[in-house]
User: Fold this.
Amino acid sequence: MRPATLPRARTRPTRSTRSTRSTRSTRITGLALTAVLGATLLAAAEGPATAGTTSAPVAAVAATTSAPAAGNRREDPPNRVTPGNFTGYGFDQCLAPTQAAMDTWLDHSPFLAVGIYISGDSRACRDQPNLTPAWVRTQLAKGWKLLPISLGPQASCQPRFPRYRDDFKISPFRGKGRYPRAREMGRDSAKSTVVDAQALGIVPGSTLWYDLEGFDLGNTDCRESALSFLSTWTTTVRGLGYVAGVYSSAGSGIKALDDARVQRPNAYVLPDRVWIARWDGVANDSTSYIRDDGWRPGGRVKQYRGGHDEVWGGVRINIDSNYLDVGHGSVAPMERHCGGVQITFRNYETIERSHEGYTDRPRKVRALQCLLTEQGFYTGKLSGRYETPTVRAVRAWKAKRGFFVDGRFFRRDWTALLSSGNKPVQKIGSSGVFTRRVQRAINASDIGVKATADGVYRGVTADTVRAYQRRVGLNPTGIVTAATWTKLQAGARER
Assistant:
């Protein structure tokens, strides 16, 4: 994450400045300090988790982040944990993009995760005019996965830091071999990061990332003081109810962490997740610099391409590209409709009244009755029989949609009914009820391709969406935006 070049301080901070740790980023008010330290003591009693595990959010911290201010007329629901369970693509940029840029990239880019610099005196983008609690809430509500990053003290042998006159490096003072100053700095930095995260509405259970830029792995004091710093940073962040992640280059910081994991498992507390900078152009979570079993499954992000411009929807942003496989990956919870009625099928044939030569389809009729019940058009029994009450509900539904009204229910109608509801963007990495709606609706359209309606938006679903978009005259992006939802909800099956 090497940001744009900024003017470097002419004079380096003195040793006493670096050790006293009195910068503005670590000034925590009494109220916030009470909240975070109370949560720390509660979590510390249970001891630290091992590398690759995720600690549960602490209730005391959750209360401080989600409670509305006194006098608010209504209580907004708390933001969702980020990134949560996710497998897909992301980007990071020093400056949080504008809302217009985020909306355009949501509709047009392959990315569904974004790294944002929220904390740290050594970040190049100290001023973040777009980064507000409202910005965070909006991105999460739209489906973005946020990766909050802190860039504070850097390794003592890192040649590009300090960046300003009031930031500094990790102290390499060895003490009795425990690097006490580095550990103290790690604790202070973690507290500052959590307070900054809370101020933006990033809730406990979310992953906070520490950006440790590359350094000389062969410099013992530099390496060991950096590991000591990260150890206490991890312990403190985890104790305050968050998941601890570390970003660094594959050949330095990440390798040092993995070597410590295997060769000295009790020497340091290791992060729950790692973000590997390995610019090999391969969008996966693999690298030869660390062992295959480290932080797997569900604990790796890989930055596979460094700074470059990309243009999506006419909006240009200079980014790093990332691949994420975190938590349980993109998964969809099980759905239950009308007490257990099956509504997922590979084919959705026409439904009509029983007559000679027509094969009744009671399971599909029950699915239709269930869906019409959920949408408020049917109040009868889920009998599986296509009789007058169900036909009456079908006619009412068609009239409401502006469709030709008769007593039969065609594939076009199935497509529209199955896709009814809100229209959030769906792309690779999305999961849940809206992805299932897309998958079922395209299956109902019977255009010659099928999607497994498992609620996870993978490459095969993107291919199916592209086929549908071509069929109905849309640009085949493989991303379900409002235009594709509109076609599905109109029951479109061709141009």
